[in-house]
Specification:
Layout: H1 10-17, E1 23-26, H2 34-42, E2 49-57, E3 62-68, H3 75-82, E4 87-89, H4 92-99, E5 117-120, E6 129-135, E7 138-142, H5 144-151, E8 154-156
Parallel strand pairs: 2-6, 3-5, 5-8
Antiparallel strand pairs: 1-7, 2-3, 2-4, 6-7
Length: about 160
């Protein structure tokens, strides 16, 4: 079996340009499989697999939320924390337009349009995280310190 080629996405380009050390992790993408499928395929703890969610506030301003794979986002709590009346997930079309990535392959790095990033604070305490590299079936492993340095997210506690 031929070795799969590592994709060169906008996320990978940004990580390389910023000289961030990262590891490549390819897996068989499963439609609607989410972090449960990627963590199972790669033998990783789902808590360390970080999902990238594109949401919008009540003014339709897009934002990125980074959350542990085994947790959900309390949109009510997130809205309270960021001073919005409400926060909800974007449609797949809006998420793709704003990020430049297909849903299921959304990375917080190298997005088409800059968006504020909110990250569950406990992600920063993990020794290593695995996050989408900009393509379905592709995660990058990295230090959460590098993610914080690059994205400068606002740390929040909104996981349930």
């Amino acid at each position: 079996m031929a070795k799969e080629k590592i994709p060169v996405t906008s996320a990978v380009r940004q990580l390389r340009a910023e000289k961030v050390p990262f590891s490549d992790h390819l897996y068989a993408y499963e439609e609607k499989g989410g972090t449960a499928a990627s963590s199972r395929e790669l033998g990783l703890d789902e808590h360390a697999v970080i999902k990238t969610l594109v949401m919008e506030d009540d003014r339709r301003m897009p934002l990125i939320v980074l959350m542990h794979g085994d947790r959900q986002v309390s949109t009510k709590e997130l809205a309270r924390v960021i001073g919005a009346r409400q926060v909800s997930p974007c449609t797949a079309e809006v998420a793709q337009k704003q990020s430049g990535y297909l849903v299921g392959g959304t990375s917080p790095f190298g997005t088409r349009h800059p968006m504020p990033v909110y990250m569950e604070g406990s992600i920063a305490t993990l020794p290593r995280i695995y996050i989408n590299g900009g393509k379905r079936g592709y995660l990058v492993g990295m230090s959460p310190d590098d993610l914080v340095r690059l994205l400068k997210p606002q740390l929040v506690t909104v996981g349930i």
